[in-house]
Structure formats: structure tokens, C-alpha cells
Amino acid sequence: MTSALAAFWQRLCDSQKQRIYILPTRAGYGFAGLLLLMLLGAINYNNSLGHLLSFLLASLGHVTMHHSHRNLRLLNLKVTPLEPVFCEQNARFKLSIQNEDSRDRYQLEIAHKKHPQMSRWRFFKAYEPLQKIAYIDADNMTSCHLEVKTHRRGWHSLNSLRVASLYPLGLFYSWTIYPQTAQVLVYPQARGKLPLPALPDGGRQQLKGEQLGDDDFAGLRNYREGEPLHRVAWKAVARDEVMRSKQFSSPEGHELLLSWQDLASLTDTEAKLSQLSSWVMQAERAGHHYGLQLPGNRIEAGNGPQHQHLCLKTLALYHG
Amino acid sequence: MAKADTSPDHHAINQLIIALFIGALPHFVYQPFWVGLAFVLMISWRLLHSYRGWPLPAASRWLKVLHNGTAALMIVLIFGQFGLTIGRDAGAALLTIMLAFKVVEIRSLRDYYLSCFLGFFLVITNFFYSQSMLMVVLMMLVVVLLTSCLISVNSESSAMPIKWRLKLSVQMVLQAVPVMLILFVLFPRISGPIWGLPQDAGTATTTTMTEQITLGELPTQTGTTGMSEEIQMGKISQLIQSDEIAFRVEFENDALPPASARYWRGPVLWQTNGTVWSPLPEPERSQAAPQIGVRGEAHQYTMTLEPHNKRWLFALDLPTEKPAVVPAYMTSDAELHSQKRIKNRAQYSLESHTDYQLNPGGDPNLWAALQLPEGKHPRTRQMASEWIQASEGPEQYIDRVLQFFNQQNFVYSLSPPILQGDTVDQFLFETREGFCEHYAASFTILMRAAEIPARIVTGYQGGEVNPVDNVLTVRQRDAHAWSEVWLPERGWVRIDPTSAVSSQRVEEGMSNILPSERTSPRLIARNDALVEVWRDLQNNWNALNTAWDIWIVGYGPQIQKTFLSRLGMDNPDWRKMAVILTLLLALTGIVMLLLSYYRRAHPDPVVRLYSLFCHKLARLGLNKSEHEGPLDFAARAQNHLPQYQQQIESITRLYTQLRYRHASDALLSELELQIKQFQPRK
């Protein structure tokens, strides 16, 4: 008995940590108006059962409020950012919702705050719906992906998530806000018409990565998430079911320097960054050794997914 | 707010149609036939759209014209039928029809909500026609269905099968009951109407609406039954009996007066033109309070009077005081008059003495009790003057007249022949067949012709005692009329000439005179044992109905006050009620909130996990029945969901292992993992 009470108290305290807001919807106000009309009719005709029905429906509204509130209680959200994306692509997050109550949850609408600094009074418009969750079983969890369109390079944050619901009768709209810190890196969009700068003198002209000689093969290493699939050593996978990716190396002295100075023809900083981003992608695909030269920042030549990420990250976070 | 205005699916609309159809069902009886016809046609249209893909009005202009045109025609028909004032009937007809037309063109969620809400309103219109228990049961079903409709548009069918929606809806309605009861008892009741009521409103509280006439009532107004102010002799040759309840009486300590003393006093009639009897007009009536002398034990009782739209209050002959709760006064002829017309069921407590003296010292209106119509009833007058001369006083004369009724071939009949010409003479000397009003009227004429002041008292006589709750029920068929003569020193003395003709009527009450078919169904009327069982059932049912009628249907401003005083609130007024109501509501709200945190989980985690597994399958319509073992259930589930065959099998295997063989923590966490990852979809 005491343990049940303690558990009860714990749930009560837990739910207090998360504030749940609730307001009637338009249908809810309509319902209230209907009740008033009914009550007037019942009074006018001295109809006792009319009173009873009005009171039953008023009480039903009250019960609905409790159900609506309960539908958002004791939810535990966890957001994990997924891989970096290029600007204008959708940033993806993985959302896991844990239902810690002994009741199912229904019709949850997940929205995120589009602009971090939006007036408190226009908060409804500040949120953009992302995902609908039809149900979560009691004491169970569900997960889904959230995709947010990106418009700027740099860190992209969800700001805060709003979980809202009209369940069960659509008379009340209840919502709760979960501040979020998870962020996804957004690379500058890989865009630009300028051709990849030529390799330094003596270098071989290479057009396609596929033509890279076998002698440049440097070895295998464990596959890491984010590496291109064509690098996977499928034969090795077939052998022992471990994903490995092929590593290539270019001979010394064939380093490509992607430099800010080469982009004097472009005036706009973002356009320059986009062009550099595009070059990084091309160079990586071509299997070059490449470095990056930015005002006040230089990345030595390298190769491979990690190096590519480093370059793109530098571009994404560049402050001009 | 962020609500996508998508259109509701067919399932939700069909569900709504079922709910509305049940809600409109009683109106098919109450309203003209074309209302029901239009309703059925319109919902059929929508159903044909759902099942056969028939086009809706929005599909083409012609269909739109057809839809709107029919709607306009219906409105014209309604105005034609009910006139331009929107009363109860017209309003209900309009609502029923418009709802059906609305259902056809539901396109958005907004339309859907509107139709649901109007459906709730349809429910209340049914209560304006009948407040019986059966109606409440039917309407609660409609409320549950409409609630489940709202749930349907706020959840996905893949997440919540219809069975769960109905279950949730029942659960929510049940959870709404406590607050409903608090509001019902404590919400300060206001006595309506707030605005003017149309003519048809008077029937709102009567249980049936048959046009019935009792005791010579003229068929002037439809829908109301009960006493009329006037008695007309001869015009009505057939007393149409009504089994409707006039009032109910509950005696303190169950001390009922003997059957022969159960006279329920109503309007007193003084004036006659030879055929019609009427009360003394207000200006001619004395304002003096009656002088009442009493002997013996008082009877204390509570009357629950059905609304009769008149002002008199019935009381056991003779009440000694006016009621405390209903504003009323006592006239000089000891008639209780309410200040207002009785439009709602009224409840009042009274004290009466059956052994009394009324105005023994004289009555200011005695002159009116001697009036006879000019030149009427010559044979009666002649007989009276001969007999009074031969008698040694009024008492002897009265005895002689009663003997005359008793010994001549007078017959008590519920369907006497029609009287024409001089009604009293014809009755006394020719037809000699009649019921109480004939005897009371001719007796009174005989008295007045002999210079003995006399008047007619109308009311009820008898009543049935229900052995279940000891409540005495007086019905319209117990209506009665008797005479009062004024004798020096003794005052007004009640004399019932009908008892001289048919003592059975007074001693045993009306129901024994009625043919047995009137009191039990024709089929069993000849079998005494069955009649006995039938009567028992009827008594219990009547007791239940009495409680229902008084405490639920009759719960108005006045019964609320009585009830709250009984609960211990002294002098209840709306302020006190509001305070207690608010406190109780706040308390219930808190209790409900706290209760929602309480959870009762099965102590065995294995059982808990397995029920989660069953729950997930139930969402897809696979319900495990009680008698079904886990293996049988798994086989059935695998048949339905071949793509989850392996998962189901492995979970079931783990479960049976844990439950029936040996438990281990490793297996348990394996089961938990598997069940939580099991997300079956169709």
C-alpha cells in the first residue's frame, strides 16, 4: 500500500515538471454555446431531464478536459540529431517518445518552433507541425523522424518542440513545450558553376574517381556512417559480414588547394562558400587530396569522409 | 488553431447517421409523417453515397438545386403545419429535418461537429415530449454514440478500433455522472418560463398527450386532462376515463385514512342554470376565512400534484391550513387556491382532519346555496316541496332523498344515456342512470328546492395504495363529485348521494368498478393467478415511476428546496446553493485529477507484459477471449498476420516459459524487449 502511494506521489511530482497548457477549441466554444442554449430551453420549459442532459454534457466537457490533459502527461521526449545535411535539404532528427503512463496516448501532433525569437503572444504561429503520432501504447515508446527544411548554413536547432493534441473529443486543445538543444549541422549548399581548379604542375589529369588506379588503394577500414556506399568493400562484407570501406591514397605532391582567393569573380560570401562546398564534394568524389584556404583559416590537404566533413563544417561555420 | 480541416471518413459519417437516427426515432411518432419521411430519405442519400458511391449535392448543380429546393419546401410545409410561431412542435420538426439535410452535405470537420452538436440538441427536444425512464435510456444511448462520433474524428481508425471508441465513450459518460448529479441537485433552479411559451408548452410535463375528458369537461383545450371549473350535465353521455395520474399522496407514518374517508376536495360549485354548474364568481364570494372546528387525529401528508394548468390545490377533506411552500390561500368555501397556475409538478405538505365542522355558525354565502334556475325542474321542485312538508326536519328529508336514490331503480353507470330537455327532471324520473355528477347535481337541486342550502364539491375520491412504497395514487378516473348541505349547528355536511346508489364506488374505489381489462392486459384478465403476478409487477413498476416522477422529473425550484432542507441546509437560497456547488465541484475536480494518477498494475510483470501484447493485437481487431489459451490465440493471430508470425511465436513461447515453467530475469527482459518492439500494422 505504501509503495503504491509512493509511486502515486512520484507520478504526481513527475508530471508537475512538465507544464501542460489547455484551451478550448472553436468546437469547444461552440459546445459551450450549445450547453447554454440547452440550459435556457430546459429552464424555459421547466424540463427536468433537459437540465439533466445539459449538466451531463457540461460534466462531459469537464471530463474531456481531464482526458485531454492526461493525454499529454508523463511523456518523455528524446531527440537525437542525425547526419549533417546541405542547405535546402531537410535536417533530420530522430524523436523517441516514451509513454510513462498506464494509458495509451493518441493523436499527438509534434511541432517545432520555427523562429527562436517569436513574440510570446503569437506562439501558435511560431510553431510548424512536423509529424503526427497516431498512438503510443501504455508504458511503451515510439520513435519517428522529424524533417525540417533548412534555409541557412550553420547549426540548425529545433529550438523547442510542442506536443499537442485535440484528443479525445476535439473540444480542447492541449499542448506542452519541450525545449530542445539537439542541432544538426547544415553545410553550405553545394552549388556553383566554376570548374574544379587544376592540379598543380606535373599532376595527372583525372576526371573520374572510378578511373583511379588499383595501385592507389590504401587499405580497408571499418565502415563509418556517412561514408559513400560505393566505397564499401562488398566482397569483404560477403566474406565476414563486417562492413568495411576502401581507402584510397593519392601520390604525394598532387595536392589540390581550394582557395577563397580563386573566387574573386564571385562577390557574395554565400556564393563563394557554396562554390567551395561544391568543390569539396567534387574533389572528394574524384579521390583527390585537397585542402581548404579561407581567410584566417587553413586546412591542410587530406582525404576521406572525415576530412570532407571537417572542410564542410569549416565552411558551414565560416564567419566572414 | 493548428487543426487541419480535413473531411471525416465514411465510417465516422455512418456512425453519426446511426446516432442521429436513434435520436430522431421518437420524433417519427410525435411529428407529422413527412418529417420522418424526409429524415429517412436524406440519410439514405448519404448512406447510398457511402456504400454505392451515389453523388452528393455538391457534385452537380442539379443535385444542389434538388437538395436546397427540398429543404425550402420542408420549411414551407412546417410553416403551413404549425403557423409562423416557432413553438416546441415546429422547432423540433425544423431541427429534425434540417439535421437530415445537413448530414447529406457534410464535407468538413466543421460540418461534422455542427451535426453532432445539433444531435445533442435533438436529444433535449425529445425530453420536451416525454420524460419517461425509457426515453432517458434511449437518449443516453444517443449521447454515448454521439460522443463516440466525436472520438472517431479525433483518432485514427488504425489506432483505435470502433469497439475501443465506444468503450471510451461509455467510460467518459460514466465519469461525467458525479458532476452531473452535483449540478442537478445543487444548481439553483429557476422557475420558467423566461420568455413566452406557445400554446403547446402546457403538455411538456404530462406523460401522455391523449385528449381526455373527465367529469363533464368540455373538449375546449387539447392536451390537458383534469378537473374543469364547470360541470355540465347531460351533454356528455359517456365519461371518458383516463388512467393518468392526478396526484400522489404520501402519509406521515403511513397513517392512511379509511377508504370511505378519502375525499380529495377540489373546486366548490354554487351556481347553476339547470345544466351547467360553476363556482361562485370572485366578486360575489366572501373573503372571510372559513371557521373550522376539528376533532380526533390529524392526518399529515405530502401531496405531489401533477400540473393541471389551473389554480386549485387538492387536499384531503378537510385541510386545516394552507400549504407552507406553495404560495396559496384558502377561500371561504375551504378550497385551497394557489397564487399561480400549476404548470409544473407541485409538492406541498398539509394537515387534514376527516372529522370536522365547517362554518357551523353560518356562512356569508348561504344565499347562493339556495339559488335555483327560474322555471326549471318543475317535477323535482314539486316532489321536494311535498317531501319537506312531510318531514320533521332537514335530516329526515335528506334521509328520505337518499333512500329514494337507494331504493328506486337508480343505476350507477359510466355510460348513461344522453339527457335532453330538463336534465334533472329527466334524470330523476326517466333515465335514472348516471354517475356521480348526475347524483350530486340532482341531490343538490332537491335540497335547494326544499330550502336547504346545498352546493356541489368536486374533486377525487379514493385512490390506490401501492403496497411497495405506501404511496396513494389518485388518477383522473377517480374524479368525483358530491354534495354539501348546510345544517344549523353542524355547518357544511358532506353527503355523497352516489354512495346511496353504489356504495361500491366509494368503499372500494373506481378500479373495482372498471372492467378487469382496464387494469390488466386482456390476455391474462381471466387468469386470477396471472392477474396477481401482473399486479405485483405493476405495483413495483409504479413505485419506481413514482420515485422517478417526483424526484427526477419533478425536481424543480420547489422540490429542490424541500430536498435540500431535508439534507440539512436551512433555508436554502441560490447563494447558499452556489457556494456549496462551487466547493463541491472544485473538490470533485481535484479528486478526479488525483484518481487519474492512480494506476492499478498487475503485480506480476509477466502478466503485465503479456496484456500489453494482447492490447497491441486488439488494436488490429484481434481480441483474445477469456477461454482462449495463449497458444490458440497465437495461432489465430499468426493466421491473421502472417508477416508477424515469427514475432508472435517467439513472444508466446517466452511467455509460456516464464509463466508456466520457470521465471528468470534474463528471459523476462527478453520478453519485455520483444513485446515493446512488436508494432504490428495491417
Describe it:
The complex is a heterodimer of chains A (320) and B (682). Chain A has 320 residues and is of the alpha+beta class. Chain A has two domains: 15-187, Immunoglobulins (Immunoglobulin-like); 209-316, no CATH class. In chain A, 31% of the residues lie in helices and 32% in strands. In chain A, the strands form five sheets. In chain A, strands 1-10-9-5-6 form a five-stranded antiparallel beta sheet. In chain A, α2 packs antiparallel against α3. The model of chain A is unreliable at 202-215 (pLDDT under 50). In chain B, β10 and β11 form a beta hairpin. Mean pLDDT of chain B is 83; it is low at 201-225 and 234-240. Helix content of chain B is 47%, strand content 12%. Among the domains of chain B are: 10-175, no CATH class; 367-465 and 478-519, C8orf32 fold; 605-677, no CATH class. Chain B has a five-stranded antiparallel beta sheet. In chain B, strands 9-3-16-19-20 form a five-stranded antiparallel beta sheet, with helices on one face. Chain B contains 22 helices and 20 strands. Chain B is of the alpha+beta class. Chain B is elongated, with a radius of gyration of 34 Å. At the A-B interface, α1, α2, α3, β5 and β6 of A face α5, α6, α7, α8 and α18 of B.
